[in-house]
Amino acid sequence: MAPTVRKRLSAARARPTSPRENSRREPVARHLGRVFALVLLSLVAAIALGGPATAQEPTPTPSPPVASAHTAPPDNAVRVSGTLNNGGDRLASVEVRALDSSGREAARTESTNKGRWEVHLVPGTYTFEIVEGSLSDGVSVQGTVERDVVAGRANTVIFLFGEEKTGSDISFYEKLIRQTVDGLRFGLIIAIAGVGLSLIYGTTGLTNFAHGELVTLGAVAAWVINVTFGMQLIAASVIAIIVGVLIGLLNNAAVWKPLRRRKTGLIAQLVVSIGLAIALRYLILIFFSDRTEPFDDYQVQVQRQWGPIAITDANLLSIIISLVVLIGVAVLLQKTRIGKAMRAVSDNRDLAESSGIDVERVIRFVWGLGGGLAALGGILFAISELGGRVQWEMGFKLLLLMFAGITLGGLGTAYGALLGCVIVGLLVQLSTLVINPDLKYIGGLLILIVILVVRPQGILGSRQRIG
Length: 467
What we know:
Helices cover 55% and strands 12% of the residues. The protein is of the alpha+beta class.
């Protein structure tokens, strides 16, 4: 079997191919030859034209597309927003665009029916402007706004509309009336924050230098709730006041009550309050910001004109709220049991305790009330005095004026604190008629020095308080 198989295989190898098989192989060879020829021709042409295609002059890289409300923002983009408000009228369908540092348009959007607009930008410095052609007839904008867009913060841009007015258009008489109204507003805000400080001094004898940080914490709490959690500022302020009450109670329970139990002297407690103030101030700096941060609401404020009086809605609202709260505190002190107990402890603590009054309960209530009033004062101060912005050391600036007010009115007396703070606020604001507004707080400190020299007990105070 094996020799037969070998013979057949060798015969098959030696057999010549048929013409049909040759005709099948010829086209394949012909196609391969054509492909090889085309490759050679391509190489020769590329060399003749100056090298391969990759060595040719590169095409320009297309510029990145402009971000708009319809394009997906980059991963590291930050939200920038604002409200277009012209004299109380919200401007709809107005185009807002952002230019980067090189002047190239980085984003463009259009305001909604409520005047709100929003873009997303990579952190950096931008110039924001309104497209003039998108404004209605008779509406003009005052220039552009340059802002640093920073991640992790509220980036709000405010445009001013209408013609810019100069101070020379207002007479001295009108300036005097406006500064008087503004001084009344400022004095009432100082009184809101200072009444709690005066009540704490009256019931415990403590000169609390950390009270200014209670003011700042109230404003910071309102800012966090308003900006971070997106809650409307009025509701955020109510929650911030509750937070201020809790901080006041915690302050008393953690620091001052143990010191009172150990019979710590008032001078030592004063030093502790200074250390606590410094610690709280720089903790706020670490966890909040070293820059002024705006609220989402009440940034664009429109001035209302009533004859010579010109006042914004926010300032008018702060005056009304301050008056209502201070009247409520006066009614609390005069008509309620806890108010009468507070006055009794302030007059003579030992006699009040021997009469059956729970002095520690009264002090605890005073600390909660003082914390809540300080938080409210901080919110009103940020909205009406700082233009809707929060600063990490705003309470320290207000603290010296609070001390000047309650010293002028009489330490430990709520009504004296109210009167003294209003006088200080009036003098501070009226002083801007003759001195640089940046130096207006100096007047309050001068008042403090003069009162301590001339009448240390204050206007309504006495050298020895009696029941």
